[in-house]
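Structure ticket #2291
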Amino acid sequence: MTVKLGLVGTGTVGGGCIDILRNHRDDFKRHYGIDVELVRVCSRNPEQAIAHGVEDIFTQDFQDVLNDPDIDVVIELIGGTTVARDVVCGALRAGKHVVTANKALMATYGEEVMRLADEAGKEIAFEASVGGGIPIIDPMKHSLIANRIDSVMGIVNGTTNYMLTRMVEDGLSYDAALKEAQEKGFAEADPTADVDGFDAAAKIAILASIAFNSRVTMGEVHTEGIRNITTMDLDAARDMGYCVKLLAIAHRTDEGVDVRVHPTMLPLSHQLATVNGVFNAIYVVGDAVGETMFFGEGAGAGPAASAVMGDVLEVARHVQQGIAPIVGCTCTDELPIVPMDDLKTKYYIRFKVADRSGVLAAMAGVFAKHNVSVYSVVQRGKKEGGTVDLVYVTHTACEKSVRDVLAEIAELDDILRDEPSLIRVED
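Resolution: structure written out below.
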């Protein structure tokens, strides 16, 4: 039996999938007994289709793919949550299996997509939505299901990890690191989704939903990016035995799911501290397996296409063998999202202040007023233009109390209006 495929989207990842199918179709059939044929390709860009030699099966209307009765599996690789949602949901309603790499769609409309797949008795596979080529969703839905997963934490955005690495290793400023990342193709012309943490938020929403069997949507993830991080912050972290990473964090707690994305100080001894450049890593803790870490390239044509085609071949195997979907939606629990205000952790906070007597005493009074205990305070850098940088490290404190401190200190006369740098510490 030949399983017939329809592909929507011929960008970087879609092109990679076409190349894999062209180069390895015979290998798949010989080694695994899986015969897959690409019979329809849809894109808004005919030039891309021509470049990959699929002009004879090309269409610009995705309905041609959905309405083709011969197609068994639809591969959605256009991204976003508008047309892509129509493609994915339309394919499932048409009785077709779906493979997607769309993190934003699954993190926002995952419940709808999973319900449609269940009603149709079809599979929805989305391994490439998190971690690029790193196998993580399939292991969590199969290999690790004997565990109670208590923590998922990871570096899941290669752009920001590359930028922070360059800022540490070569002292580049944020702006210089971003420019270099864009020139090398690691960052988009509009880098908002990466540098403001939204890409990572979508991914941790998906991982938390699977890990804790409870629906977590992208909008429920507290999200902060790296725009305010400077080389001074990175140097201070190193001096204290830490590195700074943009971490996506999800913990199961007695109060519910603690899920967030923000710059985080990690001990240099932590496994994630050595993950540099464009690499991703996802750290999972289960009650039986203990600590595990999945590491690899998180983006690019090859890694993402590898994950997509892995899903395609697995779904095709099930189609050939008449196997019903193995693991569908597992979000049967309804755990609450822990409010960010309730978070308790240590904090690194850097203020730019006027170099005048009385400033330190005034700030100390504000910390004390809100019951935030200070572990240390250090002046860093050189005095410039009558200003200095003061770096505070707190003992474990409540997020709301720290926010109250920041708000009140911002009103003091000698505090410059630059937004302070705040980095949470994960020991």
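Closing remark: DSSP finds 14 helices and 17 strands in the chain.
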